[in-house]
Every structure is written in C-alpha cells, then in structure tokens.
Write a structure and sequence with these properties.
Blueprint lengths: L3 E8 L2 E8 L9 E11 L6 H8 L6 E4 L3 H10 L4 E12 L2 E10 L2 E8 L6 H8 L11 H16 L7 E8 L6 E9 L6 E2 L2 E2 L7 E3 L6 E3 L2 E2 L18 E3 L5 E3 L12 E2 L7 E3 L8 E3 L2 E2 L13
Parallel strand pairs: 3-6, 7-9, 10-13, 11-14, 12-15, 13-16, 14-17, 15-18, 16-19, 17-20
Antiparallel strand pairs: 1-2, 1-5, 3-4, 5-6, 8-9
C-alpha cells in the first residue's frame, strides 16, 4: 500500500523535518482532503486519545496535503518531549477522504539507578541528591541525566573533591517494555587540600570553616607573616580559625610541629582556634603551633 510519510526526527536534539513519499504530489497544487480517521501506534505509556487531541487533528477537518496542518501536528507532539520520533502516515484514501496514522517512538522510562566508583557508604546521600531529578517510571531525557550527574558532582565538590567527574550510561531493562536503568560512574579524583597559604591582615577571621566539612588544612601561616616570625593578626577580637563544621583535619601527625601538615596559628586578638558550633564534631587538630612563632621559640600569643 502506498503511503505518504511525513516524519520528524531528532538528531543530536536538533529537530529536523524529512518528507518521503511513494506517490507523486504536485507541490504547486496541494489537494484538500477531509480527515476521515486517525489511529496511533507505538504508544505503550501514553494515551492514544490524548496524543490525537494534542496533535490538533480532528476527524471531519479539512486539510491540505502538502500543507501546514500535518507539520503543525508533529511540532505539537514533539514539544511534549515524550517521544524520540514522530511520524504521520497516510493509511489510505477513499476519494477525497484521507485516513492518517500517528506513529511514535516513546522515550524510555526509568526503572532503577546505581552507582559505581564509590563506596556504598556514600549511596544513601547520593540517592537523596539524584532523587531530586529522577523519578521511577519517569521519562529519561538528556536533561534528567545531566542534572542528576551535576547533583553528584556538587555533593563531592562540597566535600573537597573539586575534580569530581561523573559519567552516566543507560542499560536496557529487559524485564519491562522500553525501560532503562541508569548507572552513574563517579571519579572523585583527589581531595583538594588547603596548604602553604598565609591568612593574615583580614578584617574578620583568618579562616572560617562554615558551610561544608571534611576539609584538610595544613602547612599554613594564620595570623602571621609568610615566614611565621611576626604577628599580623586578623579581625579585632576575632578568632584566627573558626570551625563550625565536622570531620575536618587541621594540622596532622608530624615529627616537627608547625611544619606541613601542621599550621602556625598565632597573633590574633581573639582566640587562636575556636570550635564554635554544636555541629563542629569529629575534628582532628594536631601538630600545630598555636600562639608561637614558626620556630616555636617565641610567644606570638592570641587574644
């Protein structure tokens, strides 16, 4: 049976039109038809009547072929972002009455997701992040995958893994029709450490660990000059280091206190180091020189 095929595909998410036909039509003389019927194929999850309604095509309508009505219907269905492809086919004609078939290929639906490259101890937190963007049974689009991946990256960046990269792949779920699972592969890279920095002469604190924990602070001069020999201080009556988060490493085990990874924390008019919040738990503070010069031979007291 000859069919007029008016197809609409997405190539790299850029919509393009393609017209193919086995019958010859005079594009200079479009013919008017009465729409005698419409059927839908390929819709496993979407309602056929809803698809027909959104297309804007109505039985009994007059439409021209070639003409604007069919491309307009395809555009309306494409805007739903439910389909990977939309075609409108001529099923048959009886005199001046035409019968059309809307053929859709639905985007896959999500049945599950998983993580690789990280310990299971992170999974609960990451599920909370990705579930802001994923819906079981929902449509899987590129935007959904990008947003979920960015949520995972943000989670690890806030923990000091600034080079985190996430890739995602789809795996066909053969237990369901047109269904996929998403696998997020996480490469955290190395945690970025704060080291060999001088924090002095500020109007406020020298260093404030405020919003995210699990930081490593080592080998720095806080409240002194770059050599650690003279007091400069930070804000009046402010602590040199204010900690309000958990699981931070300030300093470290070292045979020579004050050398990296230890810090020199001196010269403040306020406290040298202050744990100022109930959430400032499980912090490790060791191997630092607090209230002395870098050599540990002279007092450079704090408040």
């Amino acid at each position: 049976m000859n069919k007029l095929v008016i197809a609409f595909w997405s190539l790299l998410l850029i919509p393009t039109f393609s017209f193919a036909q086995e019958e010859l039509f005079n594009y200079g003389e479009p013919k008017e038809y009465e729409l005698g019927g419409i059927k839908v194929t390929g819709a496993d999850y979407s309602d056929d009547n809803a698809i027909i309604s959104i297309s804007g095509l109505r039985v009994g309508d007059k439409l021209r072929i070639p003409g604007p009505e069919v491309p307009k219907a395809i555009k309306a269905l494409w805007k739903l972002r439910l389909f990977e492809s939309v075609e409108i086919l001529k099923e048959k004609t009886i005199g001046d009455v035409i019968f059309l078939e809307i053929v859709v290929q639905e985007r896959p639906r999500l049945t599950r997701h998983s993580f690789t490259g990280i310990k299971k101890s992170f999974h609960d937190d990451l599920n909370e992040e990705v579930n802001k963007h994923l819906l079981k049974g929902g449509i899987v689009t590129e935007n959904v995958k990008v947003n979920a991946s960015e949520g995972i990256e943000k989670y690890f960046v806030e923990k000091g893994y600034l080079d985190t990269r996430v890739t995602v792949r789809e795996e066909t779920d053969t237990s369901r029709i047109n269904a996929v699972g998403l696998v997020f592969n996480v490469d955290r890279g190395n945690r970025i450490k704060i080291q060999d920095v001088t924090f002095s002469g500020n109007d406020n604190m020298g260093l404030w660990l405020k919003d995210s924990g699990s930081n490593t602070v080592g080998g720095n001069y806080i409240g002194t000059d770059a050599a650690g020999s003279s007091a400069i201080g930070n804000g009046a009556a402010k602590p040199n280091v204010l900690v309000e988060t958990a699981d931070n490493y300030i300093g470290g085990v070292t045979g020579t206190p004050g050398l990296a990874p230890g810090n020199v924390i001196s010269g403040s008019e306020g406290n040298g180091l202050q744990l100022a919040s109930a959430s400032a738990t499980n912090n490790y503070i060791q191997g630092n020189l607090i209230g002395t010069n870098a050599a540990g031979t002279a007092i450079q007291g704090n408040g």
